[in-house]
Specification:
Length: 127
Amino acid sequence: MTTTKKLLPAVLKMRTFVPAKNFEESRKFYEALGFASTKLNDKSFEMRLGSEAFFLQNFYVKEFADNLMMQVLVSDLDEWWDHISGLSLERNFHVVPARPPSLQPWGLRVAYVWDPSGVLWHFASDS
């Protein structure tokens, strides 16, 4: 039997599948944030931000979306907040208003952003 320890070097990356209640609106939302989209097929896009990516899927379960949280760890949260707050996401995408950065009990400063499907994003920094 192969041990997990031997398999670890073979792991290249992990990516999440993020649900979309309205597939096209969600794609536009993420593009507004700065993600580059690549269509994979009629039911999924790869959404890339720098070297990181996730799959946006044309699939939606409310309970899953409402409980899904994603974290983007950034080096300059204030610069990201200026970008996010300038996008008028609430007006343009009818989402929950983003919350400005604040220090959390676990030690990170976090700005909260909800996507059109209810997925919560933590834009975070340890400084």
